Amino acid sequence: MRIIRACREMAVSTVAVYSECDRAALHVRLADEAYAIGPSAPRESYLNIDRLIDAARRSGADAVHPGYGFLAENEDFAAAVRDAGLTFIGPTPEAIETMGSKTAARTAARRAGVPVVPGAETALSADVSDQEIAAIATSIGYPLLVKAVAGGGGKGMRAVADPSDLAAAVRAARSEAGTAFGDASVYLERRLTRPRHIEVQLLGDLHGTVLPFVERECSIQRRHQKVVEESPSAQVTPALRIAMTAAAAAVARSVGYTNAGTIEFLLDEDGQFYFLEMNTRLQVEHPITEMVTGVDLVRWQIRIARGERLDLDPARLLAPVGHAIECRIYAEDPDNGFLPSPGRITQLRVPGGPGIRDDSGASAGLDVPIFYDPMISKLIAWAEDRPLAIARMRRALSEYLVTGIKTTLPFFSWLLDQPAFIDGRFHTTYLDDELKARNGRPFVEPSAEADEVAAIGAALQAAMSAGSMTSGASSAGPLVARRWRAQARLDGLR
Amino acid sequence: MRIIRACREMAVSTVAVYSECDRAALHVRLADEAYAIGPSAPRESYLNIDRLIDAARRSGADAVHPGYGFLAENEDFAAAVRDAGLTFIGPTPEAIETMGSKTAARTAARRAGVPVVPGAETALSADVSDQEIAAIATSIGYPLLVKAVAGGGGKGMRAVADPSDLAAAVRAARSEAGTAFGDASVYLERRLTRPRHIEVQLLGDLHGTVLPFVERECSIQRRHQKVVEESPSAQVTPALRIAMTAAAAAVARSVGYTNAGTIEFLLDEDGQFYFLEMNTRLQVEHPITEMVTGVDLVRWQIRIARGERLDLDPARLLAPVGHAIECRIYAEDPDNGFLPSPGRITQLRVPGGPGIRDDSGASAGLDVPIFYDPMISKLIAWAEDRPLAIARMRRALSEYLVTGIKTTLPFFSWLLDQPAFIDGRFHTTYLDDELKARNGRPFVEPSAEADEVAAIGAALQAAMSAGSMTSGASSAGPLVARRWRAQARLDGLR
Amino acid sequence: MQYEVEVGGKLRQVTVARATGAAGGFAVSIDGRTLHVDAARIDTQTLSLLIDGAAPRVPVRSYEVTLASDAAGALTVRVGATPVAVTLNGRRRWGRKDEAGGGGSGPRRVMAPMPGKVVRVLARPGDTVTARQPVVVVEAMKMENELRAGRDGVVTEVHAREGLSVEAGALLVVIQ
Amino acid sequence: MQYEVEVGGKLRQVTVARATGAAGGFAVSIDGRTLHVDAARIDTQTLSLLIDGAAPRVPVRSYEVTLASDAAGALTVRVGATPVAVTLNGRRRWGRKDEAGGGGSGPRRVMAPMPGKVVRVLARPGDTVTARQPVVVVEAMKMENELRAGRDGVVTEVHAREGLSVEAGALLVVIQ
Q1: Which residues make Cβ contacts (< 8 Å) with residue A488, sequence separation at least 6?
Q2: Rounded to two decimals, what is the model's pTM?
Q3: If DSSP codes are grouped into helix, strand and coil, which group holds residue A328?
Q4: What is the DSSP string of B74-88?
Q5: Which ipTM score applies to this complex?
Q6: For residue B321, what is the nearest residue in chain A, using CA coordinates?
Q7: Cα separation of B298 and B287, whole Å?
Q8: Which end of chain A has less neighbouring CB within 10 Å, N or C?
Q9: D61 touches chain B (CB under 8 A)
Q10: pLDDT band at residue A258, thresholds of 50, 70 and 90?
Q11: How far apart are CA C65 and CA D75, in angstroms?
Q12: Chains A & B: contacts with CB separation below 8 Å
């Protein structure tokens, strides 16, 4: 959607691909052309390079935008697109390959003079013995992390505090990495205590210019998945901003990086930052950067791919206007361990008004598929400063209406009221610690008032619908649902 | 809605009032409290001061925000609120009275050394004879405008090119003004040729500070009603901006103006500007000013009413960031002389994504009342410059889906493709001239492709629904509608 | 199933048959040409259509169509953002001819779109009128609104009287 | 009409009678207290309620309530943004007791919320479990998801087997 919108604004016509269960997704409905590329399972569709190239050829497309996930960071795909004579809207296969390997990326960072998290520089292929691994671990020191060399997003990652857990953790990480990325090799890295996740957005053109943007604060994570992002970070001083953005640009330049990318850092409690990894694609959280800089990143991705020069004022990119927050709204039940809650969205009312941006792929009547990341919307709030942005986000959350599926909206309403969040006192494990402490306590505890109103509402709905019952109504589903169906005949389609 | 949102962000609880036909309006549903103030006819509800004050008293409210229309510019209401011991979120009754009278306002402007449109300074009460009026008219010179002293929005206004039409025009204007504002007195004013309507937003606090904002371009009008607004104006040079904003601030200071207000100017073809009138309230088009300055005007209205000081940087308010455009989406049928198209909104999909803001009071299932200004949404697009903002607005219009009623969306899609609009070559009568020239030619002329797809879609909808017919279905309405009802039972409420 | 669809003043013959295989697949022939259309229902009013020219190098076009019938029973199909007026006269006589226009070029009836007061009547029975010619002026919301003829023809009935208060949907003039 | 509404673990008696006069007016008594409620239907699932304490100086509170029943038939009433779980057992026995929880404190059945693979079964028949205690672990989207008991009770049925592929809604465990 985000990409289709940018293309429409540039009068570029769009071609979407879809797997079976995405047939009714907005990106398919609003594109100019659309091609089926196979069954719902990613391996047979969105991860199938041949089918994607075929679709592109069939449509006579000039360029391919890889989106956020799936093959967005796959050098073989980028190469296949190039070999098919098409433009890949992203970095070169070579850059993807270098920065896609965590160990190679760490090496590149160190060469560029940027500190990296202490750890082993070599990947532990499947044949390295537990003894050797234990030795490396001791040299790095505990606590440490076992990480998959490929991929990211917390998959194939395990934390180890006690040497006796190491072997098991490595096995688990390897198998998870194998299934997730088809590459079982892992490596070891020191685990910093209470670090923040701070990242720097970059744009690089085909003429050697690389420009960094004001940082994003992404420390609010659940199981290593970002759930809330902000820009700028409450924790980053102007001096630190200059240092981190300069370091990020240096790493990107050292590998001749082009198009959009993000360098992720860990910031420890003493204000020391370490290169973590690079994302060689546009990220889900890019809108907050757009909100505080006024730059349309997707538009620039396309312009760069066309060979245009980055003519942005570098100073402006580092001087944020106001403050932006993004909440990733998922089809998950926060009161039930954040279990995915697929199903059909029966009603959707998106918040609007000043400072609110909703980058949503959902619409009423849509079935949320169970096969992929069940994110239904990116809700962004901008305001003149952080407290106002938080207040505005609270307001927007209170307007957001989604029925038919459970969403993480109540979780965000809770989070935005937490003193630690309001004061900006958090780190990458803050949320997991909090959730653990809550031990499943529901995020919404309705007031006595809400309970009473709910009781009245349910009774009234029943009473008002009762009148419109007809013998002809279907007999499936509980009676109350049937009554609404009956009502639908009267109201639904006027 | 706009105001409720600002209050929520300030944790101020809200009280709405409503007339019969607004019972289901969003502002009623989302306020904390709501009070009925009578039948749908404005005179018996929204224009009934006593009922409004009663509602405020009943709710124990501290302050009253008058909104955009109805009594927003009525000094008696402002006074009644003050006498009831409540805070009126707006200027003083005295300021409203002075600037509410066009003739008194013109006098104030001249005293402040600001040029006004040449015209008669005295109101022509009902007893002034046609001869006297003709004499005044000659002294001013033709073409001229007959204008109601009270109110605005084009009501009670007539253009006169030929002296022989004068008497009739005055009669018509007087009767219209009488019904519309309960004050039949009118005055005469020179009619400038092809002027632009440029206005300056102001904020004044209770401590004597008055700050002007970058101008708004509101020349795109139909029958003297603004339909598209922009900020900044393509026509206003930095030097002219300084001159106009300074003049606006001078007028406001000269009458001790407080809270939000707007000074309207006419800008003639030689770049000479004339004071036109002042709006002593928040205006519908305020969001574009918010988009290019990042200032929340409604929030400031409330802060000012609380006695807070305007601590904004004046320079920032005159240095717009990017460009913003607003389209007022009405429930009117543009292909049928812009006739009001009241009815029930069956479907509503509001555009989103980068740079788009929708200040909408509508929602699916809502009946658009026929009693008031049938505006269903204010759609605002922001981008880095004017061409990008136009492209973005086009994209947003193409995403906007409203069914059940006719809207002016197709008209805006047409307007944004007009070379004169794209080049910024327009004036206050540009649109009326264009529409006249089109002589009712439809704004959408579907392509052969669209016709074919429509035919296929209609046939498929019928074919797909046919299967799910049931004998129990109601027999009202055309058959095709019945089939959708049947379908609703299957899909509508899953 | 076969349907007669009137769109843009032309009458099109559309035949719809379920294609074997894919759930939402249809073989649609329009005026003789056959296309493969994959139709997915988004909601009760909206379909997503993927139209495959079924020829080499012909792209698969994606359209979102939304169907709505207004109070008067006239059918509007939105193709993307473009509203297209449609009359559907299938085997089972879709729509009500007299209101939906039948084989003519526009609605025969001029009806009040909203409650208001008739301020002027501009047509008398027997008058010949052309499409979009004003026939009645109704005042609502303090604005005078011209109601125009929906088609060329001769005025056969005039139910509007000056000063008359009318409800939404009230029949004012009939043109044959 | 009279209804028994279970909300927040409490059973409330709600009587609804149309008030004379205003169209949407109802006299609603809940646990003995009588309120005047003006209810406007926004759409098939949504009501706008104006609740009048019917006492001097008591404000008229405005609420938007949205009712939705999930696949399992459980009822959720959103009061503004706050979701409230509700069971409605009126004269005509609203909802299906076995699924909606009847007089208990939560659903008796643990069902698969999505298709996936059972990787661990943590409860055996006869086990005593407490609400929110994990009973089955299902893998979907490469993430392991713990399914928890909906209420305190004793496990009476276990249909989950390790390695078993399950569809959405599949019954895994029953707790009495």
Answers
A1: B485, B488, B489, B492, B493, D44
A2: 0.79
A3: strand
A4: -HHHHHHHHHTT-EE
A5: 0.74
A6: A294
A7: 10
A8: C
A9: yes
A10: very high
A11: 33
A12: 133
